[in-house]
Specification:
The structure is a single chain. This protein has helices at residues 3-21, 41-49, 60-72, 91-97, 107-119, 147-155, 175-195, 210-215, 225-228, and strands spanning 31-35, 54-57, 79-82, 100-104, 125-130, 160-167, 201-204, 220-223. The protein has 238 residues and is an alpha/beta fold. It has an 8-stranded parallel sheet with strand order 7-6-5-4-3-2-1-8. Helix 4 crosses helix 5. Residues 233-238 have low confidence and may be disordered.
Length: 238
């Protein structure tokens, strides 16, 4: 068994343990996004061979190059998520290559994604609204108070399918603070789901805190270093 395959098995076991420890009020399955930023296509292929099908990229150009490389190799059935910040000038390649965009935080970005998706004749692009639950100035995302209004605007766009919320919580060793932020997100997700039947995804939790996130109601976690090892410089594709 390769190191990546072994790491994946460890992640799957840890997620299963967190699911078993969560409150009975949470019954949704938990999906794992393998965060492959800066990692070469060969590493993604190894994870794919070990059964992983959902991958997340932070950078549009790097992600698109890896998507095209792996498609040329004949790997099909991968679900690609953009999880990093997105600028309007990168909306077109994002809309044409990715299956999900988790980092929508402005209506202008959402409108551009919708337009490019429709022009290409592609099905609706799955999107998540990124929330700045920790209110940190260095973090992207809409404020908690603005989520419902922004969700209404995005849900009206014909090229997009709003699926839920994403957030990167505060990087803190304080477990109580982490749980408070995760619970705020879960409550917001539940409120949104009552208003919109398409809402089914709450992406929160990464390598350092995903077990807590699952216990607090995450339906999707984003895990990179535990699967692929520490990150280096972005891979080069030519």
């Amino acid at each position: 068994m390769s190191l990546i395959a072994s790491n994946l098995q460890g992640v799957y076991r840890a997620c299963a343990a967190a699911i078993a420890a969560r409150s009975t009020r949470y019954s949704e399955p938990v999906n794992i996004v393998a965060v492959s930023k800066t990692k070469p296509a060969d590493d993604i292929a190894a994870a794919f061979g070990a059964g992983q099908r959902v991958f997340g990229e932070n950078y549009v150009q790097e992600g698109c190059e890896k998507i095209q490389t792996l498609r040329a190799r004949g790997l099909s059935g991968i679900e690609w998520h953009l999880i990093g910040p997105l600028q309007t000038n990168k909306a077109k390649p994002t809309a044409l290559n990715f299956d999900w965009v988790q980092s929508v935080d402005r209506l202008k970005i959402a409108e551009a994604l919708s337009r490019h998706r429709i022009e290409a004749g592609l099905p609706r692009l799955n999107v998540l609204l990124q929330v700045n639950v920790s209110r940190e100035l260095t973090k992207s995302g809409v404020s908690v108070d603005a989520v419902l209004a922004m969700a209404d605007d995005i849900s009206s766009l014909p090229g997009l399918q709003l699926r839920g919320l994403m957030s990167i919580v505060e990087n803190t060793p304080d477990e109580n603070e982490l749980r408070t932020q995760f619970r705020t997100l879960r409550a917001l997700f539940d409120t949104l789901a009552e208003r919109m039947p398409s809402i089914d995804t709450l992406s929160m939790g990464m390598s350092g805190d995903f077990s807590i996130a699952i216990e607090e109601g995450a339906t999707m976690v984003r895990i990179g270093s535990m699967i692929f090892g520490s990150r280096g410089a972005p891979a080069s594709y030519g």
